[in-house]
Each structure stands twice: as C-alpha cells, then as structure tokens.
Amino acid sequence: YQRRVHGAPTNHLPTTRLSTMSHAMNDEEVITELKKMVAFIRQEAVEKAREIQVKADEEFAIEKAKFVRQEGMSLDTQYEKKKKQFEVSQRIAKSNQSNKARLEILKSREENLQNLFTEAQERLTKVSENANSYKELLAKLLLESLLILHENKVHVITRSNDVQIVQGVVDEALKKYKDVTGRESKVDVSEGLPKDSAGGIIVSARNNTIRLDNTLEQRLRLLEEKVRSVFLS
What we know:
The protein is an alpha+beta fold. The chain contains 6 helices and 4 strands.
C-alpha cells in the first residue's frame, strides 16, 4: 500500500511528506486524504475548464460580432447597390415611357397638321372664286410687297386671269405706300404664274435680282413651317 502511494502523482503534496503521513495515518485517513486530493484536482480541473470555456465564449462572441458586423456591412453594400440599380432602372423606364408618350403626341400632332394643311391646300384653290374678297387680298399682298422691297420700281407677275384685277388695285396700293413711307414707286403687271396656281403675286425688282414670292401657295407653306416649328418642336 505504501509503495502504491509512493508511485501515485505528487503534484500538490511532496512524496516525503506523504510517506511520513502514511506512517501516522490509518487506511481510512489515507483514503480520506486521497479523496481530498482528488476533489482538489477535480475542482482545479473544473475551474480551469470553466476559464477555458469563458475564454472560448468570449472569443466566440468577438468572432461572432465581427462576422455579424462584416455580414451587415456586406448586406448594406449589397442593398445600396441594389437600390441604386433599381433607381437607375426606374429612371430609365420613366424616361423611355416619357419619350414614347412624347413621340406618340408628336405623331398625332403631325397627322392632325398634315390633314389640316391638306384641307387648306384644297380650299386654297377656291379663294379666288369670291371676286371682291380676292381683289382685297391682292391689294394687301401688293402693298405688303412694296413695303418689304422698298424699291422705286417693281414688276408684278400674276395669273393671266388676275392681270386686270392687280392693275385695278395698283393705284390704291401706291397711295397707301406713299402715305406710310413718303416715297413713290412704279408698278408694272404681267402674267406669268401657272394657270393651276391658286393665285397671288410674285414681285421683283432690279432686273429680277430681288424677288418676293407672295403667292397663296407660298403663304400657306410659310404658315405651315411656322405652325410645325411651334407644335412639333
């Protein structure tokens, strides 16, 4: 029994001390002391295990917090990226929808304007059918031409059927021109516009180096360009 005790681990009690105590102790006392030593070792082991567990838990908590933080940052980054992509796609979709609507509006306006000016072109040929209003129109066109060209002498070209009508408004136009400008001018009239023309006049000066188209067709074209620039821009 003493040899077995001497051969046991002696980390906490010196061998000489234990051997001396064994001579003074009976078996029960030795067993009691051994149980105390075992309990002490177990307690130390438990405490050491607890320390290790606490440290492991702390390290795990740190790593867990680090992981959660990193994952959270990653999720935030992904969310912001997805959010920006969504916003960009929304802007693109809205822009495409807006452009599509605008093109549809422009197409509708173009069709309406085309129909309008096609109808106006058809009605244009009937303007000269009302003799009195057409004569007044020619007088206004001639006065406007004189004021624009501001020349001492002009030559007027019109349809063959309108030569006499234009000649009949020359004096009135020259008088109004003088009243406005204080200047005098001379006008000679000849035929030259096609018979299928809707009417109006072409006025030239200085051997045809200056030319003003004041036919009804040209007036309608200018009006169409102006209207299209407003409604189709």
